[in-house]
Design a protein that fits this description.
Blueprint: E1 2-7, E2 10-13, E3 18-26, E4 30-39, E5 46-52, E6 56-59, E7 67-72, E8 77-82, E9 91-100, E10 108-111, E11 115-120
Length: 121
């Protein structure tokens, strides 16, 4: 099995910064991609940022220029640096990874438990 453990959420004032971390552990042969999603109350879960092996990255338009995703492949960890936070960034942030547990297996989706980010105005 594979576990994703997130940390770094919290309460911050508008304009502030937070850094989220997500570490993958367990029976990992390889990680195809890692990323962050978020879900605000009453809204659908949406992609915030993603990365493939830490080289190729993509961002939601709403966070471009403010958020930066990075990955430490040696530690199987992905980070999300969030700057210039806005109240509309308030949501539960979920770590996501596509993980292969064997050489022959296909990648499977795994999710973290979620971490709350609250931005006050």
């Amino acid at each position: 099995q594979v576990q994703l453990v997130e940390s770094g959420g919290g309460l911050v004032q508008a304009g502030g910064s937070l850094r989220l971390s997500c570490a993958a552990s367990g029976s990992i042969f390889g990680i195809d991609s890692m990323g962050w999603y978020r879900q605000a109350p009453g809204k659908q879960r949406e992609l915030v940022a993603g990365t493939i092996s830490g080289r190729s990255t993509n961002y939601a338009d709403s966070v471009k220029g403010r958020f930066t995703i990075s990955r430490d492949n040696a530690k199987n960890t992905v980070y999300l640096q969030m700057n210039s936070l806005k109240p509309e960034d308030t949501a539960v942030y979920y770590c996501h990874a596509i993980v292969r547990t064997s050489f022959w297996g296909n990648g499977r989706d795994y999710w973290g438990q979620g971490t709350q980010v609250t931005v006050s105005s």
